[in-house]
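TEACHING EXERCISE
Course module: macromolecular assemblies
Task: Read the component lines below, then compare them to the predicted structure of the full complex.
Student: A.B.
Group: 4
Components provided:
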Amino acid sequence: MKEALIQKEVLILDGLCAGFPARRGEVRVLDHVSLSVPKGKITGLVGESGCGKSMTARAVMNLIRHPGRVTGGRILLEGRDLLSMRKKERRMLQGREMAMIFQDPMSSLNPVMKVGKQVDEAVLVHEHVTHAEAKRRTLEMLEAAGVPDPERRYHSYPHQLSGGLRQRIMIAMAMVCRPKLLIADEPTTALDVTVEAQILDLMKEMSAKGTAVLLISHNLGAIARVCDDVSVMYAGKIVEQADICTLFDRPRHPYTRGLLSAVSSLRDGSEVLSVIPGHVPNLARLPAGCSFSPRCSCRGKECMEKTPEMREISPGHRIRCLWEEPGKKPGEKELETEGLAAE
Amino acid sequence: MSEVLMEARNLVKDFPAGRHRAVHAVSDVSLELQEGKTLGLVGESGCGKSTLGRMLMHLIPPDSGEILIRGTPVTWLSDADFMKYRRMLQMVFQDPYASLNPRMSVRSLIAEPLETYRLHESRQETTRHVLELMSTVGLPEEFLHRYPHQFSGGQRQRIAIARALAPDPDLIICDEPVSALDVSVQNQILNLLKSLQQSRGLAFLFISHDLSVVRFISDRTAVMYLGKICETGPTEDVFREPLHPYTRFLTASVPMPDPHRRQERPKMAAGEMPSPISPPAGCRFHPRCPYAMPECSRTEPKLRRCGERQVACHLEK
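Instructor-supplied answer key:
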């Protein structure tokens, strides 16, 4: 049973913590992040800027810059613990078994090297093949990534390509060694809507071929379009986790509800948009209790004292919130709640 | 029908791109801004919407064409002569991290336009006005002596808006004012802009690539593609029943935040916007248009009026 589970889940994060040393102690940017990315599916990670979603990706790819570091938890790639591996061993997995694409394709590509050669390089580093074979693989991959006229584009430099084409090159470069896991960090944020739709379709295609995809985005529209499961992050913690339909139909965490109504009020023709008051807290000075409590419309007394743990409220649907049910604030007695409801 | 505040007639702007080539950023664009109304300008990056905004702001001169403010041509006025009109026009930029001087406090940032136009006799009066503006945009008084780095993106954008409001303008040109902000904060700023417009009778030119934002804030919408306006009209009409194939494609591309409506988008308009250095002949959208006819590659469709709307397409006759 357990083995079957491990087989399906390509990536498992288990209580991952990361932090930066600060004048007093440590600023914790990832706080017990647990999630899994199964084969052939797209898992979404959504949140506002500074919530730690990119840090999660960087922790998996071992790209956290000094002095930041992973301080606890486990990262399992097909059951192998990346954090207990030797540096060299882990390095060999990067690019071959897991690959990452970034928000801005222009700054991820070498401006003085033909894009075809850059994709070749990915093959040559990881596999013992001839240059001719590498080129054949590159052209095949460019074709699959939807680059029109791959023979000609192979010889282009990054500045000669449009933003959408550059992102397709990045995807080709990431996918050319057929990795088991693809991490996409805001892959469409720098692109126009018409191109965004095309790139999202491409990601869907890649996952249908068996790759596990972790899609990081702040755009709930993009998440809704392609993801199978979603985790919502706030101030370094995952606050809600569910399959895509449950999360959009029955969001339970007040933050998720706030985000969703903020987005939908933009579309349903309301006169005044719904907002989440205040702004994202400074990670070095997190409020006591639940990090979201200062902005939360349904906070009770207990929220400012007790830090909520992740708990499962229905199969596969987890929230980090003390809120038992709508209309009832945590830490308040039944009677008071009834009084509130009557108002 | 309200009064026309600003009118642009046949504006053209090319930028040299070396070797006798030019980027045709804006080609023959005409539009009207009405008093107290919001015109939304949407389009993909590189379509010329920011260049158009800058020309209207008198920040860059057009190659040809004319700009009129309340019927007076102002296109070729010198900067000094333009001063009295500049007070009527203000601008809010996209990136509140770049548009505020990091070495100026909130007070001096907001007081700067007041001092430029010499609106007050004394320092006290200026400070009082600054505090008034701060409360209008929702900044608490104790922020008066803080510096931009102490604020979040949303708060910085509020400072930028207070600065724009300071000389009591008639028109504010907002160039992507919320694109750098997170959703929850973005809505706060949009609500603020809308309520300012209603309480002060301001006109806005709202430039954005985000269609849902434009739909919320604009009375009328103009859609731009490769330096040309392809459709204009009352916002709800344009979004509910787009006439131009590009508008249709653009509205269908926006991902809906609803997993049940992973709509099968029409497989249309593949590819991307061509380079504005060598725009296609005829209709500029024809290489991507699924309804392209032979005529489309030969003659350029004129912006034609149909009712309250205008559309530039050979299909609409």
